[in-house]
TrEMBL record:
High-level lineage: Bacteria, Pseudomonadati, Pseudomonadota, Alphaproteobacteria, Sphingomonadales
GO molecular function: nitronate monooxygenase activity
Domain of life of the source: Bacteria
Keywords in alphabetical order: Flavoprotein, FMN, Oxidoreductase
Organism: Qipengyuania nanhaisediminis
Protein name: Enoyl-[acyl-carrier protein] reductase II
One Pfam assignment: NMO
InterPro entries reported for this sequence: Aldolase_TIM, NMO
Amino acid sequence: MSSYPKTDRLMQRGADFLGSETAILCGAMSWVSERNLVSAISNAGGFGVIACGAMTPELLETEIAETQKLTDKPFGVNLITMHPQLFDLIEVCDKAGVSHVVLAGGIPPKGSVEAIKGGANPAKVICFAPTLALAKKLLRSGADALVIEGMEAGGHIGPVSTSVLAQEMLPELAEDHIIFVAGGIGRGQAIAGYLEMGAAGVQLGTRFACASESIAHPDFKKAFFRANARDAVASVQVDARLPVIPVRALKNKGTEEFTAKQREVAGTLDREEIAMEEAQLQIEHYWAGALRRAVIDGDVENGSLMAGQSVGMLKAEEPVADIIQKLMAQSEEALSRR
Ligand SMILES: Cc1cc2nc3c(=O)[nH]c(=O)nc-3n(C[C@H](O)[C@H](O)[C@H](O)COP(=O)(O)O)c2cc1C
């Protein structure tokens, strides 16, 4: 890779932590972040992360082994905290010698961080921090690094924008901790800005979802190339009794179907047929199925086209290495102009 001295310097801590050439992570994307994309990202100098999603421990074991065949560079595994077999999945990562585990989807359950760090092959733990108070708590409880992700991002989102989270958290945390910024990043100029504010690196999802190495269906990719920022909308909660985490996706028929699904699940909750935890799990299974329909089957009408607002900047398929080079060059150019 060419040299980008100013960007490299600001990314040094993040890259050392990840064991990669650049501190650019490709955030885990269910169905998309599998062996091909993850190994391509790590081979190109970034940091790939397998999306475990709803995989069984056996499937995750295979995915890790297949990824290891395609790259000898480090990569991470993203585990969803509400997965019923979370601790078995942690054991799979430990046995396979995975260097970094990302815990997503809520506050890590008791003992999970300890299990990741205390196995035969201790891994580093990366968590998502939605607020400053929680960020401090997670760092006290053993998280080695944090991702702060704004509501511009694709997939499950919080309520606050990336620019506000970065201003709130980086001045307090970035000097002593490794903080990665995610959500809405489409160009290197934005990366330069967050690095200057103290971020150790950045995480992108949408920008990489349509890379040449991504196995996403050609129709899924076409929908991304056609979309504008305003087409990537957050899902709406229709029933106050059923708290669902909003999901940002391109609007289509599937967006309406989700409203119906929420009503159906809220009904079963009302009739006390299921508990709240089960209701939330059903919602998550719904998303996993809908995303699979779009990413794998190419059903862009009824499936879920999870995408962030940066989708409007995507115009064509590009190899991962070109995307990373471009982001680094844009960041370097911005820093050089300062
Ligand atoms: C199609 C898609 C699927 C995603 N799936 C997951 C997931 O399974 N777990 C997770 O932690 N984040 C998931 N994300 C979020 C990404 O990891 C990443 O943090 C986010 O895309 C960054 O924001 P950006 O889309 O604006 O680049 C997903 C994002 C997209 C676009």
